[in-house]
Amino acid sequence: MYVRKLKITMIDFKQHKYNPMTKFLISIYTYGFPSLVGSWLLSFLMPVASFLFFTVVLVVCDLGTGVMAAKKRKEVVHSKGIRRTVDKMIVYFIAILLSQGLMKVFEIPILNLTYTVSLIIAIAEFKSVIENVETIADLKIWSFIKEKLIGNLKK
Prior knowledge:
Blueprint: H1 10-15, H2 20-45, H3 49-72, H4 79-106, H5 113-137, H6 141-154
């Protein structure tokens, strides 16, 4: 007995006359499943898209100011630094996406974990950019910011 394996492609789908049920199943498999997965991914990523975008902006600014600060200090810029930047961005994305996943799964009402994680990442990157700008421009920006923050907290 010979069983022929059926390879279904879009060309086969259009050229051959399948029964209506087979056409329906092929269309669900071809269009429905990827649409379902895509819509789930979008529903998961869209609430954190602004966090991810802002993280990219901060990391790129940190990289740019870091390279300028290294040149000012007459240090050699290696590809290892760029590699660390890529690694850092991947780790930040993982942290933001996992915090979003925890928020969706456990629905913690007290603390918005995604905002908190994103804020901590943003503050760390902002501080790094400010430190690089201080090196480039010979300014004391971070100490000025700390004085203002501490002064406002004491009031």
